[in-house]
C-alpha cells in the first residue's frame, strides 16, 4: 500500500481557500492513506477565541469532513486531517479519519501545547485505532495522534498496544526535536509513522511561530523513509507493507511487546 | 558536578584482570559519578552457564563491589557498574551503586536481551532511585537501568517519575540504535543520561557479537554532550548541574510531567 503526507502552508482563517488549495495539491493523488497537517483548514496561532469559534466545525457534518469525504470518494484513499472541532460549547484540537466508506472517527488531542490550552478543551476520548483496508485488499490498523503527543512516549505506545500498524500524526510543529524523535517512536513500537507537518509562520498578538516542515515517514526499524524540506508544499508517497509492523520478535528471544514488564512500570 | 563514563574492552572471564584494567583507566579520576559497562568484570557472551557461575558474585560482598568501594573511597566518586550477580541459586544481570559511603544498592536488569534469557533471571525488584551527594554538596537523584532497558520507554520514564535527575546506563550494546535513542529518552524525561558501553567483540559457540562502543552522555534537552568512538578505551567527563533536570516546564503552559494524562495510557 502507499502512504503519504501533504505538507503545505494554510492561510489563517481561510477555510475555503485552504480546502481548495489542499484539493489542488491532492489532485491525482495515488495513495491508500494520506495525512494532512493539524488544523489544516484554519491555521494554528489563533488571535482570539472568537477567531477559533469562527472556523471550528462539527465533526462529522462540517465543511472539512465533507470535503475529505469527497476526496476519499474520488481517490479511494483514507484521509487523516487536523480540524478545529466544535462540540456543544467546547472546542477540540481534533483529527478526523475519513475513508472511502465515509466518516470513521475523530481523535481529540490529548496533550495540548502552549496556548492551545487557553483555546481548546483537552481530549476526553483517549487514543483509538481504526480497522481499514487498502485498495489492494490489505487490512491494516491505524492509530492517530496529533503534534505534541509525540513528546509523550505513552501516546504512540497506547496506539501500538491497541494494534496500530501505522500512526498518522497531523502536526503543526514549532519545536525542533520531533523529526529525530519520531524514528524512535517507530522503533520502540515497531510501527510505521506518518508525520504531516505544515510550513510557514503565523503571528498572533505580537508572537510569531514558525513551523518547521520536515514532514516524515518512518518504518518499524526506526528508519526515515522520506522527509520533506523545512519549507514548501510537499505531497510525498511511500510504498509499505503494513504487515511488516506486526512481527515484534526482534531476536529469537525478544518480542518487544511480550518483553514488556508493566508490573514494574510507573504510570 | 562531573559525570563520566568508562568505556573499555573487558576480557572474557578474567575478573581480576578486568578490575585491574579498569582501575588503571580510572587512576586519578576526577568525577562525582562514574558509570562502567554492563558485566564489566566478566565479559558478556557466556559460553555456558558454568562460565557464568564461575564469575558471578554476591552483591555486596564480592570482589567487584569491594573494588568499587575502594575506588569510591579513593576518588570520592560514586560508581555504577554492571556485574553478574549470584543470589542463592539464581543469577541476575545487575548493576551496583557504590558511593563514598559504601554500598548503596543493586538494580537487577528488568528487560533481558537475547541469550541472557537462558542465563539470568529477570529483574525482580523493578526500578529504583538513589539520593546522593556530589563532592560540592549538590544533592541529586540517580536512577539505574541496564543496556536493553533503553528500548522500552517505560524504563527511563519509571526512573524519571521517581525523581531521577540522572540515569546511569551500564551497557553492552550490540544493536546500532541506542546512541540515537538515548537523546530522546533524555528529552522526553528531561533528564541527564550516561550510557557506558563496552567495545570489542566476543565469540560464543560460533556466534560473534561486536559491541558498538559510542558511550554517551545526554542532557535534558536531548543533546549529546559527549560521545565516544566505536572502539577503544575512553574515560570522559562532563560538567553538569543536576538541578537543571528538575525544571520540566518547557513552555509557560507545559510541564511535561504534569501534562501527562495516565488515564488515557495503555499499560
Question: Mind explaining what this structure looks like?
Answer:
Chain A is of the alpha/beta class and 267 residues long. Chain A has a single domain, classed as 4-Layer Sandwich (Nitrilase/N-carbamoyl-D-aminoacid amidohydrolase), CATH 3.60.110.10. The first copy, chain A, is built from five helices and 16 strands. The first copy, chain A, has helices spanning 15-25, 49-55, 63-75, 153-161, 178-189, and strands at residues 2-7, 33-35, 78-87, 90-99, 102-108, 129-133, 139-144, 166-170, 192-196, 201-204, 207-210, 216-218, 224-227, 234-239, 249-251, 254-255. Chain A is globular, with a radius of gyration of 17 Å. Chain A starts with a strand and ends in a 12-residue tail after the last strand. The A-B interface holds A 110-118, 122-123, 126-127, 148, 151-154, 157-158, 161-162, 177, 180-181, 183-184, 187-188, 222, 251-254, 256, 259-267 and B 110-118, 122-123, 126-127, 148, 151-154, 157-158, 161-162, 177, 180-181, 183-184, 187-188, 222, 251-254, 256, 259-267.
Helices and strands of chain A, in order, run as EHEHHEEEEEHEHEEEEEEEE
- What amount of the residues of chain A lies in strands? 25-35%
| Terminal residue distance of chain A | 36 Å
Major sheet strand order of chain A: 5-4-3-2-1-14
The percent of residues in helical segments of chain A reads 10-25%
Q: Give the overall average pLDDT of chain A.
A: 98
Find the CATH superfamily of chain A: Carbon-nitrogen hydrolase
- Poorly predicted regions of chain A are none
Oligomeric organization of the protein chains? homodimer
Structural category of chain A is alpha/beta
Largest sheet of chain A: 6 strands, mixed
- Number of distinct beta strands of chain A: 16
- The tally of helices of chain A reads 5
**CATH fold-level label of chain A:** Nitrilase/N-carbamoyl-D-aminoacid amidohydrolase
CATH top level of chain A is Alpha Beta
Give the CATH architecture of chain A.
4-Layer Sandwich
Tell me the count of domains of chain A.
1
| Chain pair with largest interface | A-B, 44 and 44 residues
Query: Which term fits the overall shape of chain A?
Result: globular
Amino acid at each position: 500500500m502507499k502512504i503519504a503526507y501533504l505538507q503545505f502552508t494554510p492561510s489563517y482563517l481561510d477555510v475555503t481557500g485552504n480546502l481548495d488549495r489542499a484539493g489542488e495539491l491532492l489532485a491525482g493523488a495515488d495513495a491508500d492513506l494520506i495525512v494532512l497537517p493539524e488544523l489544516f483548514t484554519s491555521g494554528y496561532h489563533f488571535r482570539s477565541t472568537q477567531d477559533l469559534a469562527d472556523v471550528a466545525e462539527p465533526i462529522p457534518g462540517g465543511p472539512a469532513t465533507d470535503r475529505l469525504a469527497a476526496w476519499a470518494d474520488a481517490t479511494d484513499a483514507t484521509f487523516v486531517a487536523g480540524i478545529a472541532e466544535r462540540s456543544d460549547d467546547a472546542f477540540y484540537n481534533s483529527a478526523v479519519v475519513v475513508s472511502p466508506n465515509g466518516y470513521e472517527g475523530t481523535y481529540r488531542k490529548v496533550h495540548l501545547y502552549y496556548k492551545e490550552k487557553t483555546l481548546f478543551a483537552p481530549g476526553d476520548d483517549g487514543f483509538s485505532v481504526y480497522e481499514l483496508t487498502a485498495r489492494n485488499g490489505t487490512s491494516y490498523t491505524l492509530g492517530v495522534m496529533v503534534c505534541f503527543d509525540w513528546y509523550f512516549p505513552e501516546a504512540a505506545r497506547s496506539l501500538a498496544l491497541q494494534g496500530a500498524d501505522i500512526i498518522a500524526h497531523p502536526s503543526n510543529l514549532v519545536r525542533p526535536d520531533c523529526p529525530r524523535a519520531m524514528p524512535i517512536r517507530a522503533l520502540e513500537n515497531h510501527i510505521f509513522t506518518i508525520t504531516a507537518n505544515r510550513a510557514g509562520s503565523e503571528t498572533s498578538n505580537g508572537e510569531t511561530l514558525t513551523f518547521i516542515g520536515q514532514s516524515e515517514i518512518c518504518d518499524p526499524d526506526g528508519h526515515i523513509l522520506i522527509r520533506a524540506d523545512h519549507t514548501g508544499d510537499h505531497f510525498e508517497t511511500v510504498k509499505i507493507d503494513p504487515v511488516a509492523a506486526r512481527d515484534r520478535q526482534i531476536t529469537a528471544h525478544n518480542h518487544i511487546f511480550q518483553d514488556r514488564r508493566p508490573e514494574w512500570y510507573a504510570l
